[in-house]
Amino acid sequence: MQFHQLRYFISLVDRHSFTEAARECFITQSALSQQIKNLEQELEVVLVTRKGRHFSVTPAGMLLYERAVKLTAQVESLAGQVQRVHRNSGSTLRLGLLSSMDCSDLPERLMEQVTNRTGFELSLQYGSHDELYELFGSGALNAFISWESRLNASDSFTKARLFAAKTYVEIPRSIEMPSRPGSKLKVEAVRLGDFKIAMVCDEEHLPDEQYAVSNMLGIDLNSCISVPSVHEGRRIIQQHGRCAMIVDRSLMRGDASTYHKVHRYEIVSEGKAIKRPLCCYARRNLNPEDLNELCTIVMELAQKRATGEDLRPEIITVDNQNQANTTARPDFSRRQFPI
Fold this sequence. Notes:
By secondary structure, this protein is of the alpha/beta class. It is built from 9 helices and 14 strands. Helix content is 37%, strand content 24%.
């Protein structure tokens, strides 16, 4: 059974005409008919029953057609991936990640997947949203991952929605918080209003981060401090009275364990999890296929799913940017970047 025979058979069923199928496959009608007969002889089944100038597809033929459609699509996808890896070989993809994201286990896994599936060598840069945005604007980054509310699509870059990650807060064990026995630790967002909140960001970017998190939680966070890392933040919150730290546990938090001196609580509002959507922002000169593959890799690693599942990032362009969330400040989308 030859691959081209399957393509001929698919065309025949789709067109339901030997004449049209032959024209589509750029062969003569007699050659197409012979290829179908050869396929039937090799499989030892009847694929189409002929009645004069008409024919119908047998059940065996429909089974072959359905499986062949999937098979040819996989082969074509594989061919595209091989060509993409060859095309990008020797090039570097410069990707920015937030400082609060995992910097231990993630880089190795992400670099391996990106190289194997896109051909790019991956270079990672960590920083706050504003730092990554400045690097992105200067051309030092091809793409970066940040929270959706912070930035909209423009005619200079593309925005791809990835997934919404639950938001967590770490609170020293010395502080008693109400929780149900045997259930996952959860805390209502309103209870955090009287805490000093630590956030992983630079001091100069604390006001913007505080504004964004306040909007997300739906409360005013009047007392916030910046910490350089999750590890350092855990140490600091134990030195202050009623101090807690906002953390995320998407792909990006490789440290899924809780430090023994703190409890990690899922932040909820009226019992429902508060989720923070992540997006990938990419320069327009990044090939859409490469962007889609990069986003798929990130989503697979984040959700711990096996490669091959139907994970599709939602690509947002300037044409439909008005549908995106634009409530947070500042509005970076007006700045235009060179391609």
